[in-house]
Queue: 3 jobs
Job 1
Amino acid sequence: MEKELDSETLDWRSVCPIASGLDVLGDKWSLIIVRDLIQHGTRTYSEFGDSPERISTNILAARLKWLTSLGLIEHVDPERASRNNAYRLTASGLALRPVLEELGRWSQNHLKALHPDIVDIL
Amino acid sequence: MEKELDSETLDWRSVCPIASGLDVLGDKWSLIIVRDLIQHGTRTYSEFGDSPERISTNILAARLKWLTSLGLIEHVDPERASRNNAYRLTASGLALRPVLEELGRWSQNHLKALHPDIVDIL
DNA sequence: CGTATTAACTTGTGTTTTGCAAGTTATACT
DNA sequence: AGTATAACTTGCAAAACACAAGTTAATACG
């Protein structure tokens, strides 16, 4: 049996807002999911698998649960079963847009030397 | 023998700037180190251990090497031995400030409910 | 100058988290 | 009713993390 992570179980490393943001989103996949939802508006489970980063399904499922329990994403129709019931960002999730914009801008300006193929758009 | 991670060995998940930024900084500790350096200007190895998040020394050493190999941080005096030779941000590292500001702002606005003790400053 | 301190790591070990492949369940279409 | 397939789960190997302890070498002190 796996240890279930949810927003109740979380222990915060400190009272610092930056550290707290990283407690919640400081991994390689959560913000990729948010990015996909910003770009596409809504996305079903299997559509997330189409992104070039190729997230594996167990991690995708775990992160979708996690982001849902944090209130950053939700099913488009909260009543229906999950098949073909896409995910979308809540207001909290949408508010991450400036963070992603700054991160993308930084990468374009400072990672090009290491990664010449990096593209110029968000 | 441990697998040494450095900027040569890195494989990028995609050409997306956001994904690329996360390839490099998408973990729980790298941006904490950057935050400490933004706040304090310079920091010695052991001073990093004073921060409330209590990074362990093996991870600290690994991240300092990593951030150095990426050119985000450097020793204050590149000639001297490392004892009492503090680290500081390079221009690339300093350019992360807006990213941290947006992340901190987001946390203050959207994590207060889950984490009431979160503070209001950077 | 020799010894003691201590900053800056390194190593060892156990525990989580990740990554990949394969399997399961249930909805919806025919 | 039967089949296809979206949405997960499970199992296991590999990597990352956490914690404690040990090592090395530069500086402070007598």
Job 2
Amino acid sequence: METIPYPVTRIRDVASLAKTSVSTVSRVLNNSGYVKAEVRARIEAVIAETGYVPSSLAKDLQRQQSSLVGVIIPKINSYTSGEMVAGLSSVLSEQRYSVLLASTDNHPQSELESLKLFREKRVNGVLLLGTELSEAHRLAMAQMPVPVVVIAQDAARHGISSVLQDERAAAAALTRYLLSCGHRRIGLLGVHEFDIQVGVERKQGFLDALREAGVEADPGLMIQGGFDFQSAARGVDRILDQGRAPSAILAVTDRLAVGAISRLAERGIVVPAQMSVAGMGDIDLAAVFQPRITTIRYDYFQTGARAASLLVDAMQGAVAAAQKIIMGYQLQIRDSVRTVGG
Amino acid sequence: METIPYPVTRIRDVASLAKTSVSTVSRVLNNSGYVKAEVRARIEAVIAETGYVPSSLAKDLQRQQSSLVGVIIPKINSYTSGEMVAGLSSVLSEQRYSVLLASTDNHPQSELESLKLFREKRVNGVLLLGTELSEAHRLAMAQMPVPVVVIAQDAARHGISSVLQDERAAAAALTRYLLSCGHRRIGLLGVHEFDIQVGVERKQGFLDALREAGVEADPGLMIQGGFDFQSAARGVDRILDQGRAPSAILAVTDRLAVGAISRLAERGIVVPAQMSVAGMGDIDLAAVFQPRITTIRYDYFQTGARAASLLVDAMQGAVAAAQKIIMGYQLQIRDSVRTVGG
DNA sequence: TGCTGTTATGGAAACGATACCATATCCGGT
DNA sequence: ACCGGATATGGTATCGTTTCCATAACAGCA
């Protein structure tokens, strides 16, 4: 039932076919040391004929180096994850590292299992794209004997390098823009606070800007829900049904903004004529949805790429101390927010 | 400069600390053979204290089994790729396989390099999510000494198992629906034909349905372009500027449909009142975009999952012959297509 | 002729696990 | 008292590489 999958061509076979020794073949393979041109040619001929491919398994064991980077993604099928993975994978493959992917489907327990697996596989570094950083996470990461870089969460205070967006400043900037358009009563379509970056930081930025402008925040206008369209719809309903309606809504993600606009349309409220809606993230459909959504643009691809570079530096022993890199943002003014009489 | 990353705890260290032999420790680790409860406890204590984690490197070498599956993705940051990766990764991780990810950014040469890397890493199987299957690909796959499953392309005639959508039938079904709504002049917003599934098969299905209904296809209404919004806009312009406008447009992807509707809006044409537009793929925003897009729904998550199951079966030696699995589709009737006077 | 340094080659010990084999002890049954 | 199976343990070859070391041939040079 069980067949031997790989052909039984080992460096030893190549050596005997080429009438030489394993040492010499190894030198040819690694292009090191002295090998007479004639012998080299003979060996290369045998390799070409047999289709010999050296085993990383043996090589990595001997070298104590796997060239593997473990990457943990809570949910791979999302726009932001996809972009980040694309970015980090482009850097890592360029640096001759392979990506060992663990998609945990938002299950924290499975993230810890993945870390265990990574240790067994002797990865040379770990990239953790996290939504939540529990105490267990912190501990598991501290126990990792290789560099770890956290993306989209701040773990710098735990001594772990992090690459993240300046969510608070971005949300504040967007809120300031809404204020500058004359909006004073602004709803917030937020998410649960266990997502630090999106749930807490973006909300804080929103509150920062309001305070700064001397506008009092109305708790009745601040909703916490999930990331899906239903949550957006429910949130809109709650905002509209709580009493005096706002003139604008800040949704903490573009998906929520889209969901909100759809729900508003169902209730006969046209955006932006009767209500303004802003999103965050600038997913590609934000520029194409009707109305085109005013939002904050992040460069997730670059975020992933930067995190990977940071990790590569750490793996190559260049840096010791934990670093914290804050990525920029950009306000994208489009059509879903309109100026109202102040 | 270079430090030893992993702690020097080997099975041998555990053995001597627990005053026993490597064999016994190995038996405890693998839960096999006889070990006295007392000794087992002692060993487990040492493992807990030292934080010993066995090296897969050594284990895999000895067992000649990496438990790795190589996954090649042309472009990870796209909706369909994300879904498929999520699906296949859920199956693989459940079956205790790890995913070695190679994102090739649509570069065929780098796909071949990835296959080489996979051979070195001694992966136990390969999943290839391909847009293009060149002769070089076919050859490289034939040389792989482990099972290969191709997703979203038909490689069954090359003796390689494939899992794919029935693109042709799906496009035909959607076209038939447009015909049943009374449309007779229908534009096709297609893509380049080197993408067999999307470029060729969907177009063929479109033509099948027209022929079936005795409607002659107008080459001036059939556009080939890229997958991006600009392509959609250019395509719409060409269709509108070529003479007599159609009453409906079939876009071969939802992104193109969205792009088309936006461009039509810019030119003052309202969908569906003045023109109907259908898409394919049912990306999540298709249900939320205004108007909600009539489209074909595929289950990409399941596609990835099925491919992974197929691969697992093959890796475990259950099946020998190449299989071909055709996934279903579902017509999603929404608001972007309206019935016209026949 | 004898040195020294460069070029060239092969033998063998690691790397850290598994698994086969030999051996030892215990215990109940005759 | 002896046997045999079940229980328990340890020694060691092996997986396929790399790398260190020993050795050798040969050149140039005093």
Job 3
Amino acid sequence: MVLPREFFDRPSAKVAKDLLGKLLWRDTSEGKCGGRIVEVEAYEGAKDSAAHSYRGLTPRNASMFGPPGHAYVYAIHSRWCVNVVTEPEGVPTAVLIRAIEPLSGLELMARRRSESLLARRARQAAEGSGVFAVIDQTILPRRQRERLPTTSLPMLLRPRDLCRGPARLCEALAINRQQDGLDLTLGRELWIEEDAAFKLTPRQIARSPRIGISTAQERLLRFYIRNSQFVSGKRERI
DNA sequence: CGCCCGATGCTCT
DNA sequence: GAGCATCGGGCGG
């Protein structure tokens, strides 16, 4: 069942917690892929100094002010991250989807991630900037001494690393600013489904401060599945 | 493993 | 012009 608008028309922290275990699906001309949501963060708008909407409406964050159940996609450090807008229209709160456990379309996701990674390496090499350079007509780390890549593509693209982190997730699912504002309740292009067979007990849900923010670090608005290997950032040892 | 650092481009001041 | 809800590579332990 595709999650309906009412699901998202609730306090963002509640929506965040309830999104754990749900299935995120992406369908494009390249095919369908998706997986289980294992890590999210709530952003609480005007009362949350870490939220993009804290200082009011701008062209970038306009989707956060729109109706619940739509996507808010933004760029950070030349990468994309996707949120689901929550609470009634005009209340600019949202839930950042930080990681999924890939379950379907792994090949498609790996292809997109490897293409992006190789393109980034190639651009760095071509521009003579960054870590990579063209050495013997091959793109290698500039300071590579033995001329063998230390971090191989298969290593980076093992299932665990396909969608672990908000920007990797968007890369694997081909989500970018074109999906900003998209209605996620239609069950087309991008949507979230209930998985009736999958249940989480309260003990399996962990919460922590949000990752990578400087303000409001005392707020525990990051939620993740405690024993999942597909969660980004720090997890407690099992 | 953990920590540090640079890439890179968009957004808002 | 500064800041950023990130990522991947290098290096030290």
